[in-house]
Amino acid sequence: MKSKSCCNPWAAGAIRAIRRAAWLAAVVLVCWTLVPEGVRAADAPQWMHALVNAPLPPRDEKTDAVMLYYEEILNVQSNGKIKSIERRAYKILRPGGRERGTIYASYDSETRITAIHGWCIPAQGKDYEVKDKDVLETALFGVSNGELATDLRTKILKIPAADPGNIVGYEIQHEDRPYILQDEWGFQEEDPVREARYTLQLPAGWEYKTAFLNYPEVKATSAGNNQWQWVVNNVEAIRPEGDMPPWRAVAGQMIVSFFPPGGGQAKGFGNWNDMALWEAGLVRGRRESSPEIKQKVAALTASETSTTRKMAVLGKFVQDDIRYVAIELGIGGWQPHAAHDIFSHHFGDCKDKATLMSAMLKEIGIDSYYVVVNTRRGAVNANTPAVNWFNHVILAIKLPEGTGDGDLKAVLQHKTLGRLLIFDPTDEMTPFGYLRGALQSNFGLLVTDSGGELIELPKLAASMNGTRRTAKLTLTPTGTLTGDVTEVRLGDPAAHQRYALRSAASDKDKIKPIENVLAESLPNYRLTQASVTNLVHNEQPFGWNYSLVVDNYAKTAGNLLLVRPRVLGSRSSALLETKEPRKFPVEFTGPSLDSDTFEITLPAGYEVSDLPPAVDVDYDFASYHSKTEASGNTLKYTRKLEVKELTVPLAQVDTLKKFYRIIASDERNTAVLQPKSH
Predict the structure, then answer these.
(1) At the N or C end, where does the chain have fewer CB atoms within 10 A?
(2) Please, which pLDDT band fits residue 326 given cuts at 50, 70 and 90?
(3) DSSP strands (E only) in 141-276
(4) Cα separation of 196 and 640, whole Å?
(5) Higher pLDDT residue, 142 or 599?
(6) Which element (helix H / strand E) includes 83?
(7) CA distance readout (Å), 450 to 137, 217, 285, 318, 447
(8) Per-residue pLDDT for 4 more than 70?
């Protein structure tokens, strides 16, 4: 099972997490929509027929399908292998539910699918069956994500007649040889669930430990002989919402770990220290240096006099010169390559980059520690049990005594290790000393040789992240607006722009992002000049400088001119303008501070008659301040929007909606200009 690839959008770690890679396999189905030739009339199994007249779980009129039955049966062998059966059955209610008739079964070198069957019980007529020989099999390569080699594959089976009114179901049998004796039972989905069962059979003398997340604990019933079963009924659906927390932070699930008597080479995690010890074992000996690494470190740091600068140049080398390539075969999905191999090949994935960086830091006398994280903040939090839901590896660099913070912003104070700088050697768009928003206030597992613990990563000041826009403009008596705009982007906005523009083939391509921003606010704009600053210098703020002409910007009303002081850029959002009540908190990307300053020189012969009111709104999660003022022949508009907290709890969502509406109203406000009286 592969868990560490930085570009994997899921966090593996449970025994069957790889089977849920449906979004990758779906690409194959674009050209595979016909009913398989092997479809035959055959009776569906009794467990499916028992569902034909079963009552449906609670649902609304927009529900495309309901899950009538979901069963997981795990049989753990004394040698650590696991045999399992997965059964699911859906009733299709609307055309959008037809996709439930496509089965995805993913596996790797440690997993074997021994049987796969699918059936359809139509509302009228005979049952249909498809099975192993009807399967389409494909390798899962994330080429765009730098994945060069993987043993992850997917079997795809399409059940015919997955139409409204029909029942479709399947059974998959697996044999697993996991590195970690831990499983995840995710019983809450986007469809309502009528009944879900989990059965666990353990060898004599084995023990288990469970933890329920986002759902009340369910007590197991014992069938004797170390067999246990959990059952849930009428589990409500989760309907995705914009900017909601990650799935693992909201969906009901059970984590179960297995423990053989007397320990053993493979076991589940009883706590975070257990997992850290397992991680430490994977990397032991991998950070050993080589003559070539020593020589490179000496060459890179020769001209630097401070320890901070030496660390920075090593970080930039690993970020920029070591190409991101993932080779995930067998244990390689978890374990980094040796530092000397990474250096000689000049490529590696996130755990490889962290390994090489750690080895190079050691050459200048700096200790560092692995930190494994999930790139979706909230997937792992302070209350999460020890489970490998991580998909990325970064470093905690121990800062020597006397090292000034300076440009080192992502620093935390550890109770025993002292000051630690959190650094992502894979993130080539974020300079040394900083941390992108998705990792701030996130939780990661700090790994040392003697164990580790879950730590909260630092949150940077809002002023480190955002867009600062200033403009000096002139308005003509006919309503045409002309002038110059300067934008400075810091943190994530700068990184996003650099990433978007690095494949730009021409100057015209480079200005498309600005054209998109202008088009949202100014339908009649024309760019007369545009340039980019600090495109490749990540340690400097990214910038735009451009000049524009906007016809008919000011609207006439008799002899008056109506002018919108907020010239461009929108900070409001329609995210919460929905008919259905919000169910989940709202997540911001990171702390930020955005500002606009627009100065408009008034047309000759005009003066200000009326100004919009100032706006001052300050909540726990964010604040917004704007002001429009007149001075001589200049109309000046200033505003600041600060995001202070990264999560808006459900109880404050209505306040956030009000906040966005206040901003939207301010953005629409106009100033009134009138001819000067003589």
Answers:
(1) C
(2) confident
(3) 147-150, 153-158, 167-176, 182-186, 193-201, 207-213, 221-224, 227-235, 253-259
(4) 50
(5) 599
(6) strand 82-92
(7) 43, 33, 14, 26, 8
(8) no
Backbone phi, then psi, for 333, in 5-degree steps?
-70, -15
Type of residue found at 551: D
**Residue 27: pLDDT band by 50, 70, 90 thresholds?**
very low
Exposure b/e, 586-621, CB count within 10 A at least 16 = b: bbbbbbbbbbbebbbbbbeebebeebbeebebeeeb
- Return the exposure string of 144-174: e unless at least 16 CB atoms fall within 10 Å of the residue's CB, then b: eebbeebbbbbbbbbbbbbeeebbbbbbbbb
| C-alpha torsion angle, residues 270, 198, 244, 12 (rounded to 10) | 50
Which residue type does 596 have?
Answer: D
If one counts every other C-beta atom within 10 angstroms of the C-beta of residue 334, the result is 21
pLDDT (0 to 100) of residue 502: 85
The predicted-structure confidence for 65-84, as pLDDT tens digits, reads as follows 999 999 999 999 999 999 99
Q: Nearest to residue 369, comparing CAs of 442, 453, 437?
A: 453
Residues 6+ away with beta carbon under 8 Å from 646: 377, 437, 440, 441, 459, 587, 588, 590, 591
Distance CA 300, CA 282 (A): 29
Cα(597)–Cα(627) distance, integer angstroms: 10
| Distance in angstroms (rounded) separating the CA atoms of residues 482 and 551 | 9
Q: pTM, whole model, 2 decimals?
A: 0.90
Q: What angle do CA 330, 335, 340 make, to 5 degrees?
A: 115
pLDDT score at 218: 97
For residues 394 and 396, give the distance between their C-alpha atoms in angstroms, rounded to a whole number.
7
- Amino acid identity of residue 127, one-letter, is D
Q: How many residues does the chain have?
A: 678
Helix (H/G/I), strand (E/B), else coil: 276? helix
The answer, yes or no, to whether residue 42 has pLDDT greater than 90, is no
Residue type, 281: G
C-alpha Rg value of the chain to the nearest Å: 29
The continuous run of DSSP H or E covering 456 comes out as strand 451-456
Which strand ranges, in their side-by-side order, compose the sheet holding 182-186?
182-186, 253-259, 207-213
The mean of the pLDDT values for the chain is 91
Mean pLDDT of 515-535: 93
The structure tokens listed for 459 are: 């949150």
Kindly report the backbone phi and psi dihedral angles of residue 444, in degrees, each rounded to the nearest multiple of 5, phi listed first: -135, 160
